[in-house]
Amino acid sequence: MVRIKKESDDRILYGLVMSRFSKLTETSTSLEQKIEDIVYQKDAWTNTPPSILAKLPRRLHQQQDHPISILRNLIENHFQQFKAISPASAIVTTHMNFDELGFPADHPGRSLTDSYYLNQTHMLRTHTSAHEVETFRAGNDKWLLSADVYRRDEIDASHYPVFHQMEGARVWTRDQLQELKDLNAKMAEELAACPLVIEDISMTSESNPYQPQHDPEMAKEIAQNLKHSLNSMIFQLFGRLKAKSTDEEPLKVRWIEAFFPFTTPSYEVEVFWNGEWLEILGCGVVMQKTLDNAGAPQKLGWAFGLGLERIAMILFSIPDIRLFWSEDSRFLRQFQEGKINTFKPYSKYPPCYKDLSFWLPEEKNPKEAHGAKAAGGGMTSIKPFHENDFCEIVRDVAGDLIESVTPIDEFTNKKTGRNSKCYRLNYRSMDR
User: What's the pTM value of the predicted model, to 2 decimals?
Assistant: First the structure.
């Protein structure tokens, strides 16, 4: 537990945070940084701190007997005919991460407040989809790709700047319709024998359409194969735990309409667990432009993406996402490959909170600090305040001792028009 003395340490904390905040108003100089034996030039887009770069070698999804790795192996074992892939580096081009997948130029994910950039052309991938085009280009028709991904985000028990995703995909050529129909009939028969209730309220509509270049019948069968494949996977992951519980109700899965820039029609999948619907993954029929970019215009298929931490927290009853990064043997020795067991907490220290208030910087030209300009170009000398920037500073100061950062008050001085905010910082060690 962190204890901070009321006066002197309050001033130290305030000084640390505000000194780092002031650095956000400075323009980066053209220095170099060497990462994984490659030199990258810094520029105005560079915003990845050393604390994040230090996570690159950890690769929790490949650490034996780690919950993330256990879950990855369980899913790979379910899709045994699929090729398992894990890219060597988390560094990708912005073209791979956004442009090849059809992200519009003003998409918020491109913003400096949302993503980690090494410079204007290179970044830490924000999703495993960054490798989708190159994987299809390599001729892979059935594959699972697992990797660490990086996003600037809020601080709480379920958000962390580094997490792990799995992407899965399967494609067919346009002359395989009958083969696809036969496969779907077989899978439907197998699912009918499972104690699984599937609630499908998804629809194909103007807001969630088939793609005009696709034969609607083929696209429908592809979407059905996607649903059969993921319903089966979810039953394998959650069904065994459901069977051990005292709840006699069957496992429930729900499909709802969604929107993703790289699939249509698109869906989100939820599982009814412990009395509430929990979102598990997103999926859909792959945008044909993606396959065209990969040099495979004759193919069409489906893809899904899921967060390994999100599912692992449910399956292993892990209450805080920071625990995945613990190197404490009391955490690590609780898990074993091939098994799903309930995590047993070993630290019961209460949270220790501090409230921190500060004036926001005055923007010289706030109208220019939004939209595409906020994503890296044409930035003013003083950047507008963004909560993700503040959370980045808090993580830099407090590390993994910080449990949550919550806004509790804001104030505007009527005379000067200046704004201030107050945040509650909760500290709690997961290992002490």
Answer: 0.87
